[in-house]
Amino acid sequence: MPRPPHMGIMWGRPPGARGERGGGSGPFRSERGAHLVHYHVKGFRTGRLKLRGKTIFSAHDPEGVYDFTMYVWLLTGGDAPILVDTGPKSIAELNRALAKMTVEPIVQDEGEDVLDILASEGVSPEDIGAVLFTHLHYDHCSNADLFPNAVLYPSGKGVAEAVARLDTGGCWVPGEVIYPMMEEWKSRVHLCGEDEAVLPGIRMRWLGGHTPCSQAIIVDTSAGPVALVGDTIFTYKNLELDDPINVCESVEECRAAMAWARESGALILPGHDPEILARYPGGVVV
Ligand SMILES: [Zn+2]
């Protein structure tokens, strides 16, 4: 799929082609170090459920029952607030889809819907300048329609694969997201490269493993790089045990992603670990 034109609405100047940035003036000069951005990274729970070990791990404790937390992330400190993943549109629909997998269904408490979360931060949906997707599963992307001014950043390789599978019924991206990405949202979709600095202080790195569109989002902060690795690494324990998730297309890609995460030097934020909110009270990572 050809890269669509990149219409930056909230970003100071039209970003245009990536290579134009370094020579320009204003906020897009960071590649040459003229304008460093250190983001604040804050996580918010959008729901919680319980799963068996055999879902979370390939080998560890198959019958154990584990808490699992769903998140969205807000990155501030750049030109406009950035959202990482959007949370689920409908908890009821998600519960229907995951009924065979969950030990206890998903519960979303009051205030955990993405719009309530943003309102609590004083951010309106129109303020969001970019939505970065760790991947395009329903629980991570189905509110993508709520942010009319945001440039959307899915994995380009992943979207191409999702589109190729539309006719076979094997597409894992909800129709309410993949079709608008190809049509009415196309002018503000940025298809991310496999290792691309997409914004000042933000790099996307393709991981695969969990889905063909899984990518890490590496964010510059005052505490060093922070990597949101999405569902290719569900929990810290997957990393500690070097035990890949068991909801994946490629175990090898999951192993490679974990090896990269360990060696990256970044502070790693896994996709669904409740431990994140224990390590970072209030979800404030930096
Ligand atoms: Zn997922």
What count of helical segments does DSSP give? 9
Helix content: 10-25%
Strand order of the largest sheet: 4-1-2-3-5-6
What multimeric state do the chains show?
single chain
Our estimate of the beta-strand percent is 15-25%
Report the mean per-residue pLDDT as an integer. Answer: 90
Sequence stretches where pLDDT stays below 50 over 5 or more residues: 1-34
Instruction: Name the shape in a single word.
Output: globular
Largest sheet features: 6 strands, mixed
Total DSSP E strands: 11
| Cofactors, ions, other ligands | zinc ion
- Secondary-structure-derived class: alpha/beta
Order of helices and strands: EHEEHEHEHEHHEEEEHHEH
Tell me what the structure shows.
This protein has helices at 53-56, 91-97, 114-120, 138-141, 156-164, 175-182, 236-241, 251-263, 275-279, and strands at residues 40-52, 65-76, 82-84, 102-107, 130-132, 151-153, 195-199, 202-206, 215-219, 226-230, 267-270. It starts with 39 loop residues before the first strand and ends in a 7-residue tail after the last helix. By secondary structure, the chain is α/β, with parallel strands linked by helices. It has 9 helices and 11 strands. It binds zinc ion.
